[in-house]
Structure formats: C-alpha cells, structure tokens
Amino acid sequence: MDSEEAEGLGLVSRRFCFIITPAMAADIVFWILAVVSAGAAAAMIISRNPGHNALFLVLCFSALGGIFGLLDAPFAAAVQILVYAGAIMVLFIFVVMMVDPRTPAPPERRKRAKILGPAIGLVLLFELGTAAWGILANSNRSPASGPGVAPADVGRRLFTEFAYPFEITSVLILAALVGAVVLGKKEEPES
Amino acid sequence: MPAFVFIPLAPAVGALVLFPLGRRLSRRSVSTLACGSVAASFVLSVAAALSGSGVRIHRLFTWIQAGGFRAEAAFRFDPLAAVMVLVVTGVGLLIHVYSAGYMSRERDFGRYFACLNLFMSAMLLLVLADNLVLMFVGWEGVGLCSYLLIGYWFEKPAAADAGKKAFLVNRIGDAGFLLGILVLWSAAGTVSFAGLSEAVASGALAPSAAAAAAVLLFIGATGKSAQIPLYVWLPDAMEGPTPVSALIHAATMVTAGVYMVARLNPLYAASSSASGIVMLVGALTAVYAGVLALVQNDIKRVLAYSTISQLGYMFLGCGAGAYAAGIFHLFTHAFFKSLLFLAAGSVIHALSGEQDLRKMGGLRKLLPRTYPAFLVGALAISGIPFLSGFFSKDAILLTAFAGGHVFAGILGLAGAGLTAFYMFRLVFLAFFGSRRFSAEVESRLHESPAVMTRPLLILAFCSIVAGYVGLPALFGERANLFFRFLAPVAGTPASGHAGPGAEAALLAASTISALAGLFLAYLFYVRNPALPGRVSARFPGFHHLLLRGFGVDALYETALLNPLLRGSKAVYRRFDLGVIDAAVNGAGGAAGLLGKALALLQTGWVKDYALAILLGAVAFLGVLLF
Amino acid sequence: MSPAAVVGLSLVLFVLGVIAFFVKRDLLTQFMAVEIMLNAANLAFLGLARGSARIDAQVIVFFVMTVAAAEAAVGLAIILHLYRRRKSIRTDELDKLRG
User: What are the helix and strand counts (H, E) for chain B?
Assistant: First the structure.
C-alpha cells in the first residue's frame, strides 16, 4: 500500500512504517486499559492510605468501563462509569473522610489469614484458570466485533423477560436505602 | 339379666363412690353406703340361692379373643357358688357393721370402707367367675385389697412392710397360678370350668398335663391360702385393722385357694398325685402352724397361725377327695374364726390397743359380752362336740381315714389336740388369772358398743348351729344337708364310707383329743402358771426355734431376698447408672464437646471467616474439576 | 482481544481482590476489595458473551451493578455505625462476635 492510502486509514507513522488497523487499535487500547486496571488494583494493595486506595479504585473502575465499551457493551460501560466509578466510589470517599484510620497502625496480631489467604487465592487462580481454559478451548467463538448491544434492547429485555427480577431489585434498593439511612443516622443523646 | 350378676356389682359401686368421695362424705354416709351395698349383695345372694339349685351361667360379653384363646366375662351360679357367696356376703356384712364401730375414730374412714367394698367386689367376682381367667382377675383383686388394707396405717413402717410382704409372697403363688392356667389352656384348649370338667371326663386332657396344672394352681393356693411354703405373710398381716384380719385373713380371701381346688375338683380327682400333694401339704401345715401358735404372745398372731392351721385342714379334706367336707369346714370356720377375730378386736379395743397376752388377764368379769362370744368361738374351733367345728373337722378326718390316708388322718387328730391347747391357752391367758394390764389401761377399760357386740352375738349363734346342716352319716345318710346340696358340684368322695362303728370311734377319738388339749391348757395356764416357764426352760433351743418361726422368715431373707436385693442393686449400679445413664450423659457430653470444638471456628475475625469461604470454594472447585 | 484475554484479566482482578481482602487491615479497604471482585465477575460475563446473539449477559451485568450499589450503601452505613460504636475499623480489633 502507498502512503496516501495509509493516510486515509488513520494513524500512520511514517517513521515506523506500520499500519494500525482498527482491530489492532482496539487490542492496544485493551491492553493499556488492562494494565491500568490491574495496576490500580495492585497499587491499592500496596498503598496504606485509604484515600489513595479509593482513588486507585476509581481509576480501576474507569478503566474497566473502557474495557466494557470495547466489548460491545456500551450500556454496561455507561452504567459502570456512572454508577460504579461515580456513585459508589463517591460514597466510599465520603466514608473515608469520616473515618479516622488511626495512624500509626498498631502491629497486626495473628498473621495466619494474611499469609494463608493470598496463598489459597493463588490456588484459586490456578483452578479458575484451568476451568476457563477448559471452556475457552472448546468453544470456537470468533471474536466478532459488532456495533454493540443497543441499550434499547437491554431495556426491552428488562421489562419483559426480566421484569420480575427487575421489580424485586427495586424493592431491594428501597430496602437498602431505608437501611442505610437508619444505620447511618447519628445517635441521639439520651435525654 | 339374672339377679346374681349384680352380686359383685353392688360393692363395686360402693367402692367407686367411696374412693373419690370418701373424704368428703360424713361417717354416717360412708358406713351406710358401704354396709348397704354389702347388704344388697347379701339379699341378692339369698334370693339367688333360694331360687332353685342347678347350674346357671350368664355370659356378659366376650372379654378376650386372641387367636385361639377365648375368655368370656361370664358368671356361674351353682350350689358351690351359692355357699361361697352366702358366706362372703353374710360374714362380710357383719364385719362391715362391726367396722363402723371399731374404726369410728379413724381419720381415713372413707378409704377403709372403699377398700373393703372393693375387696368384697373382687372376692365375689372370684367366686362367681365361670372361667379361670376371670377368677384370676378376682384373685388378683383380693390380693390388691389385702395389700391396701394391711397397709391401711401406712405411716407405720411395720404395716407398710407387712402389706408389701403379703403382696409379694402372693405374687409368687400367682405366678404358679398363671402357669397352671397356661398349661390347662395349651393342653385342653379351654379355661372355663365347664369346658375343663368336660375335657377331663372325655380324656381330652392328658393326665400329665392335668397333674402339672393341678400342682401349679395349688402353688397359687399356697400363696393365697397361706400354706407351706408361702404362709409367711399371714402372721405379719395382723398389722392391719382387726376387722380386716377377720374378713380377709380368716373368712374369705384366704379361703379362695380352697374354693379353687373345690371348683376344679374334676381336675384334682383325676390326678391322684396332685391330690396327694394337696392333702399332705394341708396336713403338715395344720400341725406345723398349730405348733407355732403355741408360743405366740400377740393375741392376733395366735389367731393368724390358727387360721393357717385350719386352712390346712380344709386342704386335707379336699386332697382326700372330700371337697364338700373341705368346703363345709370353710363354712363353719368363717363363722367361728371371724367371731374370734372380732372378739379379739373387742378385747383390744377395750384395752386401748393392747395386744400382748402377757399384759392381759382376768377379763372374764370385765367384758361380759365379749367373753362368752370368745368362749363360744374357742369351743367351736377346738372341735368340742355339739358345736360347728366338731362336725366339720370330723367330716374331714372321716374321709381321710376312710380313704386310707392314715398318716394324714393322724396328723389331723394331733392337730385337733394342738388346736384346743393353743386356743384355750389364749382364753385362759386373756380372760382368766390375774390382771396384768396397767392402771391406765384399766381406767379406760370398757365393754365395746352394741355396734360391735351385736355381730359377735350373731356369729356366736352361727358358730353353734351351723354345724347341724352337715351331720355325719351316723345320723343317717340323708341327714347331711350340706353335702347333699353340694353333691352335684363337688361330687361324692371317691373313697368308700367307713362303717358306723369306725365312724363312732373316730368321733370319740377327736373328742378325746380336743378335751385333752383343753385340759392341758387348763393345767398349764390356770392350775400351774409356772409350768410353761419350766417347760420352755427344759427345751430352750426348741423354744427359741419356735419363737423365731422355725427360722423360715430368716431363711427366705438370706436365701432369696438378700441375693435378689444385692443383684438388683448391682444391676442398678452397673447397668442403669453405668451403662444407660453413662450413654445418655455421654451423648450430652459429646454434644457439648462438639459444640466447644466447633466454637473454636468462631473467632469473631472477619478474615478467618473469609478464609473459610475461600477454602470452601477452592475445595469445591477442586472436586469439580479434578 | 480474545475472550481468553478478557477472562484472564478477570481472573487476575479477582485474585487481586482476594489478596487485597486478606492483606488489608481496615474494613473499608477490605470492602473495596470486595467491589473489585464484583467487577471482575462483571468483566467475565461480558467477555464471554461478546458477539453472541443473546444479550442476557448485559442484563445480568446490569443487575449485578444494581445490587452491588445497594450493598455498598448498606455496607458503608454499617461501617460508619461500627466506627461510631467502636471508634475503630481495624478488623483485628473487631471480634465481639467471638463464639
């Protein structure tokens, strides 16, 4: 291909002389976002500051939102950013601000769970990986890239087939709302 | 429904009312109700007896129907039943009336009469039953009432123990009785009396089975009628109120064994070995108990051993084949023995509860109504001519000798002498001689009220005349009304009659024996009061043995009772506590331990819980995948 | 961007969440770890359902997010309450439910 065609295709690097197709672009973006989200999660583990933890988590969720978008789920992506990275993390940050983490932290008693947990977690990783391998190896699904799932379709589904779970979930939210208000109320001093 | 069916029911109704309500009703109501119900039974009995002889059976309903076994709730009224029912209700009525006076100061007046009525009902059921199973119900019922009444003053440990002893010893006999019923059923297929006599007659019942059953049933009789070896409860039973001793342990309950043998006379007639055992045991017991009566110091215990002895005579008669004679002695004995007991009760009542002969004496003039009655009873039981006991005892001895049972006959004669001796020892010690009671007792000494002395009078009268319904063959073959009345049921003695000469000789012999006994008692206890002491000093060992009742009670205790108690204590400790309780407690303990162990998981730590969840998930997945 | 890669990322995120839960000492951060795990699950759903004609996965993801939101609200309220009572959200100090 000559340089004019390559220009029409978008990103072209004259210097490095390779072509990036949209599929490739998607891959690259995916890997970047993947690294970001995993890295944010790891950073959350390493950091001691709860505020930092919360912010790292926001980063992680946002990256995930992006990945959702790449996975032809625009509705999910939007909801992820709005609800997760938005509302939920804001709640977290509120609570972080209200709670004093008490530094310096006293030394931890009983290290048992701290060692065993991650160890068994790695075992879990291994098992899940095996399971996933089993599934994925057998299916010959082609990673077809479509226009994405329309929110309208999701909505339609929600109100027809999944109407019952939908209503129950709304009751659940109501209950959570009431509960949160009751629990979060400041205790009145005994008069 | 014929009237005789109601004979056991009237006292039952009385008991049914008195048990729950006895406490709340007035004494007058209680005694009226109780005596009234027995009076009703008596009237019905008289009516039933007068309305013709012959066998009448009335079936109420089928009681047990299990596989091939069938037991009806049916009543039978025949001459034998008539005699028994008249004795039980007649003497019972007199004793009920007497009790109204004797027990008038008792706190649990209602309970006494309730038990007494229940007893009457059970005894009448026993007598009127048409089959062995229903009879056994009555048999057990009288045993229960005996227990209740002996232990009437249950606060007194001696009384409570005596009641228990009576019940338990009877139980042993009852086991034999039950086995006898089972043998009969398995061998003959029936337990009704009609069916059994038919089975014996037709030969359907094997002789060996008949003998075995007869012996087993007799074991039951030794328990209920206090013969060797199960007599030990009767002397102790004197802890109960005296009217109870009169009714239950003299006139009625203890005679149930004799009645049973007479009722089953086809069975016993068919088995000479069983009859022989009955006769021998009876004869031996008659003498044995007479000997023991010689050294008793309690007025009631003398009478108790006397009862055992007289019951032995009845069994002697039945065992020799003269069932009618045995029943005849039962009949006369009911009168004079209950007379003796009630009169003794009158004496005890007069002496404010004193029962020891050594603390009595000279009551002859002080108790002008009790003494003559007692004397009549003593004369009657001793077989002094012209009183009832003479005729009945004689009938038995006659049959024994006529049937060739010389040994038994001699024992009987010896027993007659013994009877006279210990009986008049009692009379002389209590009513003659110096007054050996305390001044306090003397100050309260009084003759008993009319309600107590009138029954005495009636019984004394009966003790005199009752014998004349059973005149010996000397006076003519047809003179013996009693035997003729019972003949259809009791049969005639298998042995032949002795000639009139032999009969007269026997009458003379028994009279001499009785008079000799009387005279010896006079010698020992009136003429020469120091004599008994000298005799017992000459034979201290034997005397001591007699006082201890030949050591039988002690023997039973060491040989049977103590091992049993030790055994059951051991079982209790080893098995009940050690195994069962240990298992149950162990289960509880194990549950507790398990709980404590599981509680270790509840550290309260979120991370530990999360670890548990994780482990579970990993394990689960592992199982699924690999 | 094969499904394998997406699922792989999902697994990694999930295990990171698990490790975070056990390593951290304060309740709040542990709760955040739980959120990570939830998200990892969502990712797996979407990754495996990509390109399929059925859109059930989208609906499920929607529900998961909703419930997670409700859960977060209540959970945080509880943490706040706990903090006010015990003045601490250190899990190694919170063992009152010890059996």
Answer: 28, 2
3-state secondary structure of A169: helix
CA distance B94 to A93: 106
pLDDT in tens, A99-135: 876 655 566 666 777 788 888 888 888 888 888 888 8
Please compute the mean of the pLDDT values over residues B534-555 and round it to a whole number. Answer: 83
Q: Which residue of B has its CA nearest to A109?
A: B605
Indicate whether C99 belongs to any domain: no
Cis, bond preceding A151 (omega within 30 deg of 0): no
Looking at CA atoms only, how far is residue A160 from chain C in angstroms?
12
Examine residue C19 and state whether it is found in any structural domain, yes or no.
yes
Residues A156 and A85 in one domain: no
Number of domains in chain C: 1
In this structure, the answer to whether residues A20 and A95 fall within a common structural domain is: yes
Evaluate whether residue C98 is within a structural domain.
no
How far apart (Å, rounded) are the C-alpha atoms in residues C65 and C74?
14
Q: Within B294-359, where are the H helices? A: 299-319, 323-350
- C20: nearest CA partner in chain B: B607
Residue with tokens 């589904």: A157
Identify the burial level of B137 via C-beta atoms within 10 angstroms of its C-beta, where 0-12 means exposed, 13-18 middle and 19 or more buried. middle
- Whether residue C3 has pLDDT greater than 80: yes
Nearest to C65 among A45, A54, A80 (CB): A80
Q: Is residue A71 part of a domain?
A: yes
CB A108 to CB C83 under 8 A?
Answer: no
Phi, psi of B449 (to 5 degrees): -70, 170
The domain total for chain A is 2
Q: At B221, is the pLDDT very low, low, confident or very high (cuts 50, 70, 90)?
A: very high
pLDDT at position A6 is 47
Q: Which residues contact B66 (CB under 8 A, 6 or more apart)?
A: none
B516 CB-contact burial (10 Å; exposed 0-12 / middle 13-18 / buried 19+): middle
Alpha carbon distance B485, A111 (integer Å): 108
Q: What is the C-alpha to C-alpha distance for residues B177 and B171, in angstroms, rounded to an integer?
A: 9
Among A65, A122, A120, A55, which Cα is nearest to A89's?
A: A55
Interface contact B610, partner C, CB < 8 A: yes
The CATH number that applies at residue C60 is: 1.10.287.3510
B-chain residues within 8 Å CB-CB of A128? 621
**Best mutation site among B601, B606, B613 for testing chain C: the one with the most C CBs within 10 Å?**
B606
Q: Which of A40, A87, A88 is nearest to A64 (CA)?
A: A40
Residues of chain A predicted below pLDDT 50: 1, 6, 8, 191
Task: State the residue range of the domain holding A20.
Answer: 8-102
pLDDT at B551: 83
Beta-carbon separation of A131 and B617 below 8 A:
no
3-state secondary structure B516-547: HHHHHHHHHHHHCCCHHHHHHHHCHHHHHHHH
Q: In the structure encoding, which two tokens stand for residue B52, read together? A: 């013709």
CATH of the domain at A55: 1.20.120.1200
The answer to whether the beta carbons of residues B452 and B346 sit under 8 Å apart is yes
Q: Residue C94: closest CA among chain A residues belongs to which residue?
A: A109
Interface test with B, best of A112, A122, A127 (most B CBs within 10 A): A127
Residue type for position A41 = A
d(C-alpha B500, C-alpha B409), whole Å: 17
Residue A155 burial (CB count, 10 A) = 13
Whether cis (ω within 30° of 0) applies to the bond prior to B493 is no
Q: Which of A74, A102, A130 is the last residue of a domain?
A: A102
Of the candidates B291, B335, B140, the one whose C-alpha atom is nearest the C-alpha of residue B223 is B140
What is the SS3 assignment for A123? helix
Look up the domain containing C24 and give its range.
3-93
Domain boundary (A44, A73, A102) is at A102
- For B66, the enclosing helix (H) or strand (E) is strand B56-66
Tell which wins on pLDDT, A66 or B574: A66
